[in-house]
Write a structure and sequence with these properties.
The complex is a heterodimer of chains A (147) and B (489). Chain A is an alpha/beta fold. Chain A contains 5 helices and 5 strands. In chain A, helix 1 packs across helix 5 and helix 2 runs parallel beside helix 3. The mean pLDDT of chain A is 88. The chains are: A alpha/beta (147), B alpha+beta (489). Chains A and B meet through helix 1 and helix 5 of A and helix 4 and helix 5 of B.
Chain lengths: 147, 489
């Protein structure tokens, strides 16, 4: 269980805190790596920048990706990691405030696995995060789990 | 089209032909009259000669016959035969010619028989007869001669007069007519002021003729035409000016339309960006407010008393309500921008679906519904669905607290157009507030009485406006409300 990493890409510290709290309240005790913008997320995934030297054989089992991010936005991050064979198959869930139709459509066109809108009501938010964690970390079988 | 006649003048020739015909006919009539009169005169002369014979010669010849004086008789007969036109004189006794003078002929003759008598002892005795034959050839010859003379002189006269007339007619009429015809044919807008003159001797006012009238009439016509053309040119100028003005106005209008379109597009883009940022940025702090209030209540709840918990609950409720308001506002904005794909929509079926949904997902208690079958309208199915949801949600909400609620969906024909309606017998409203009904965020009831953001009916109105239709409402407190709507005017 300890190797299974969740990468949370979130620029808003409040949302970061609330998401981490929701995960811990849902008893999801995986290691959670937080990237605060798109560039940092890509650095982590590809072992570049501040993450130079990281063993990129170890990749997260789930990426929770916000859309509105500084430097490189969520859709661009999604596009780049889907374009690279090392990260092309990683499960990515968009977790965002936006429910604009074009964002949803573009995300799916770029190959997202799931799109979840953050509800304002925190009960609903906690429930959404709990279900996400349960599904992706427990129920779902990722492609690299065979070895 | 100007036809050239050359030197030939049909009018002149027609005149001459008519004159020659009439003149010839009259000449012939006169000639025959003259000849007839001459004939009568000659015949009279012959008759008077014959009468003369009766008086002057008969006694002498009678006596000579009685006395059988042949010599005297012959002398008398010879004398008689010498009279003009006397051809043959014969004295006969019992059809036997006793004495004669001249040579008898059989043609062209006129004869008279005279009885020869002798008075003997107061007794008149017929002793024979005398025949005088007059020759008419002379008379006929003279008549024939006269006829030829008259015919020839008349013919010559007629042709001379005709030739003269032709020449006169040409110099007086036809050449001027040709000149007028040429002038009229060449008359155009460019030489309208040219004056027509005829090559004629100058004459005073006393000798004005028909050509002067024609010249005068032509000049007037030219001047009238000039005026008409001038007026027309002015009109055309005005028309051209108006056209140029219209063109300029059109160009200005097109420019303005283009400007407005660009402005509208810019506004639309801004609105979209605004909506996007509202949707994203306004909700983010709300989530923090609600999330941390909940975290506070859960993680530090034992440090708060009931009042503290109540306050935290109020903070959360307010944040959640603001979330709903933002969502409704965004939905309203989206309806204004949404693309429309109008198709025929079965409103009856749609109403049943919406009722089932409201019942299932909103947990509304069951309320009797009456939906008229076969309600069809042309519109965008997505937008019509939102409209139907809001109208029925509204009716349901405001009927939920009465004893025997009934909601009806139907249509009627008013002034030739189909008017649809959604009617409830719920709490209704006071018509004083009807103007507030369709305004965004306008509510007639407190949120703790009936939940809602006040965007529903504004959304419905906007959807109907986008379909070219309208909506109006009637209500009475405690009696219910009816919402009527049309799609196209």
């Amino acid at each position: 269980m300890q190797d299974k990493i969740i990468l949370l890409v979130e620029d808003n510290p409040d949302d970061e805190t609330l998401t981490l709290r929701a995960l811990s309240k849902s008893k999801i005790l995986n290691k959670i790596v937080v990237a605060r913008d798109g560039a940092e997320a890509l650095d982590y995934l590809f072992g570049t920048g501040i993450h130079t030297g990281r063993d990129i054989a170890i990749q997260p089992q789930l990426i929770l990706l916000d859309l509105k991010l500084p430097k490189i936005d969520g859709l661009e991050v999604l596009k780049r990691l889907r374009a690279d064979p090392r990260t092309a198959l990683l499960p990515v869930t968009i977790l965002t405030t936006s429910n604009e139709e074009r964002d949803i459509v573009t995300s799916y066109q770029l190959g997202v696995n799931s799109y979840v809108r953050k509800p304002v009501d925190s009960d609903s938010f906690i429930e959404a995060v709990r279900q996400l964690g349960l599904y992706w970390m427990v129920l779902n079988t990722p492609p690299n789990s065979g070895h | 089209m100007h036809k050239s006649l050359g030197k030939f003048s049909p009018l002149g020739w027609r005149l001459v032909a008519a004159t020659v015909a009439v003149s010839t006919a009259v000449a012939l009539l006169a000639t025959f009259t003259q000849l007839y009169l001459d004939y009568r005169h000659d015949l009279g002369a012959i008759r008077s000669t014959l009468d003369q014979v009766d008086q002057s010669y008969l006694p002498t010849i009678g006596n000579a016959l009685w006395a059988t004086n042949r010599k005297e008789l012959q002398v008398a007969l010879d004398g008689l035969a010498r009279l003009p036109d006397v051809q043959h004189v014969a004295v006969m006794e019992n059809d036997k010619i006793w004495a004669q003078a001249g040579v008898p002929k059989s043609q062209n003759i006129q004869s008279r028989d005279y009885p020869l008598t002798h008075i003997h002892r107061d007794e008149t005795m017929t002793i024979g007869s005398m025949r005088v034959v007059m020759d008419m050839s002379g008379v006929y010859q003279r008549l024939l001669d006269k006829f030829w003379v008259i015919l020839v002189t008349n013919g010559i006269k007629t042709f001379v007069v005709a030739g003269f007339m032709l020449w006169m007619f040409n110099s007086l009429v036809t050449r001027h007519l040709r000149r007028i015809a040429d002038f009229s044919a060449k008359l155009s807008v460019d030489n309208l002021h040219e004056k027509l003159t005829l090559n004629r001797p100058v004459h005073g006012k006393a000798q004005l003729d028909e050509f002067d009238l024609v010249l005068d009439g032509l000049a007037r016509m030219q001047s009238n035409l000039s005026i008409a053309i001038l007026t027309m040119e002015q009109d055309i100028f005005k028309l051209e000016q108006a056209e140029a003005e219209i063109y300029q106005l059109n160009a200005a209008l097109e420019r303005r339309v283009a400007e407005r379109t660009a402005q509208l597009e810019a506004v639309n883009r801004e609105l979209e960006a605004f909506s996007y940022s509202v949707s994203h940025d306004l909700r983010t702090p709300l989530r923090s407010i609600d999330g941390f209030s909940q975290a506070l209540a859960e993680d530090y709840g034992e440090q708060l008393d009931d009042v503290g918990h109540d306050y935290l609950n109020r903070v959360r409720r307010a944040a959640q309500r603001m979330g709903l308001l933002i969502d409704d506002l965004l939905r309203l904005a989206r309806i204004t921008r949404a693309e429309m794909k109008p198709v025929p929509v079965d409103l009856s079926a749609m109403a049943h679906e919406v009722i089932a949904d409201l019942h299932k997902h909103r947990g509304y208690s069951e309320i009797p519904f009456k939906v008229q079958a076969g309600l069809v309208a042309s519109g965008d199915p997505g937008l019509l669905r939102i409209m139907m949801e809001n109208l029925l949600d509204n009716a349901w909400k405001y009927s939920s607290k009465i004893a025997h609620p009934l909601i009806e969906v139907g249509s009627m024909v008013e002034e030739g157009r189909t008017v649809y309606f959604v009617r409830d017998n719920g709490i209704g409203f006071d018509m004083v507030f009807v103007g507030k009904l369709f305004g965004a965020f306008q509510r007639l009831h407190r949120a703790d009485e009936f939940p809602g953001t006040g965007v529903g009916l504004a959304t419905v109105k906007r959807i109907l406006h986008r379909h070219g239709g309208e909506i109006w409402a009637e209500g009475q407190p405690g009696k219910g409300a009816i919402f009527r709507f049309t799609f196209t005017n």
